[in-house]
Design a protein that fits this description.
The chain is mainly α. The chain has four helices and two strands, in the order H-H-E-E-H-H.
Length: 143
């Protein structure tokens, strides 16, 4: 793998680490948070740790090897695919939090959280799956 691709990958993961960090801050800021928010906070914090490992691993020489790991997909391609999906899910989470926050600032009854709960549950499941998938690819690189 060429050095430019590695640098680009590290920058992309760094941006995702920052995105996860901002979501963590927003989740912590919700007062009297529903149970789903607490679970999301824990999951995003765990995901943040895994993304830190990705960032560190991408700098290692063995990461640059382009051996296919499944159906012709290299480790880098797998990580890139998972990073894009994770970024999209964190954007969805940010949108949900923005909506919840705007309702709280207006001090209106937050009936919308009943709808948001389903979205939060789906996001939690998706983020958990992505974290496990990223961990699986990482374990193949570091073993």
């Amino acid at each position: 793998m060429d050095p430019f691709s590695v640098t680009t990958g590290v920058i992309t993961v760094f941006g995702l680490v920052e995105q996860a960090s901002k979501c963590i801050q927003k989740l912590r800021a919700i007062r009297q948070a529903p149970r789903e928010v607490s679970l999301l906070l824990d999951e995003v914090a765990d995901l943040w740790e895994v993304l830190q490992q990705v960032e560190t691993t991408q700098r290692r020489p063995e990461y640059r090897e382009s051996r296919p790991i499944r159906r012709g997909e290299t480790r880098q391609a797998s990580i890139d695919r998972l990073i894009r999906r994770t970024s999209a899910k964190l954007e969805e989470l940010d949108s949900l939090l923005q909506h919840h926050r705007s309702r709280a600032q207006r001090r209106t009854p937050d009936w919308s959280w009943l709808r948001g709960k389903q979205k939060a549950d789906a996001l939690l499941s998706d983020l958990t799956t992505l974290r496990m998938d990223i961990t699986t690819v990482l374990s193949g690189i570091t073993s």
